[in-house]
Write a structure and sequence with these properties.
Blueprint (H helix, E strand, L loop, with lengths): L17 H15 L11 H19 L9 E3 L4 E4 L4 E7 L5 E6 L2 E7 L3 E4 L4 E8 L2 E8 L8 E6 L8 E7 L3 E4 L3 E4 L5 E10 L4 E6 L2 E2 L5 E7 L5 E9 L5 E8 L7 E9 L3 H72 L9 H13 L45
Helix pairs in contact: 1-2
Amino acid sequence: MWRSHKVTGPKSFPSFPTSSVLQLLLKHAVTTGGFLPQGPGEDAPMESFQKSILLALLLSAWLPGLGFCYSITKGPENATVLAGSEAWFNCTVSAGWKVIIWLSKGSPVLTVTSSQGSLETTERFTSRNYTSGDQFTSELIIHNTQLSDSGRVECSIQQPSDNNFAFLSVQVNGSLLIKNSTLTVKENQTIEIVCEALGWAPAPDIAWMRNDSLVDKSSYGTQQSPGSQGLHNALSTLTLTPRDTEVLTCLADIEALPSPQNATVTLIFDNSATENDYSEDSSSTWVVVLAVVLSFLGIVLLIVVIVVAVRCCLKRRGSTYQNEIRKVSAEKKKDGDLENNQRSGSENLGYIPEELWNTEQSPRLASLPPMSSKFAGPEDNLHISSVPKVRPQRRPDYLMSPKKIRNVTLV
């Protein structure tokens, strides 16, 4: 028969591991046939064994509360944080604990004892402690988390436990950009918008929004590539034909971000694009026409200048030629006059025309005796003289010769 004992508290019993107590109870039940007396019948040993198993299970739940052992009642949970931030892990144990050791990726980073408290060895790993009833909670704080901190974080009480570890994931949000913040598009123009994410861990998930609506994944494509120091890059290209002014947003998301990182671009739809094209075409046409006309005018002007220059040269040459001809003619005329002068000789100052010569000879004829005539009238005694009234003033200084002189006129 079991005797009942008054339990005053956990300190009334020594602390033993739960597994050792269970092993002793099971061994005793198997060897002795049970703790209770056997009744008549063939099934008595089997009933005694089943009752012994039930008693062992009851003791396994009752002994921890009496202080025979302690365990982890709530272990740490997985955490995902951004690089540079803090990570927290909690480990709750039952009363009677002696030591808690925190390990990061298998290496001890902090120790907590019931007698001395936290024993910190580095500033990056600290702890805070809480007590609630008969349970004790140790909180591990990892400051300035780094990508290399990712891995298993363990809470050890130096006893077997199933829920004494968790995983830390440190993520890095890099840069996100769209090269052009504002774009002007024309009607029926298809454009490509490129969104670039650099230096992420892990590679981000890229999505696009058109105004306030998500864009279908078939409208864009994303390529990922490894970067330096374990980081990743992503390049997403959106292809669309805008119909109106729109705002496009590129979204990059990882688990540690409270909200996706974004970059925007404004598309300005130009309704006058066609008119501008026509104006540009017209302007281009006018420019071409003007260039052709100016070129033609330039050629014509060049030809005119050449013609004028040639004419001026010819005119100068002609003037020179005429001057030479005139000079030659003048010289010839001068030479002719000189020759004529040489041919004609000096002026014969004693030259008397024949008429005057005949007149001068007539007195000699008048001195002849008059001829008798039967037609003589009453004035027969009248003296007739044919001496001219005007005589030359100049007289020859030489004796006049009866030689006949010919009068020549040179033209």
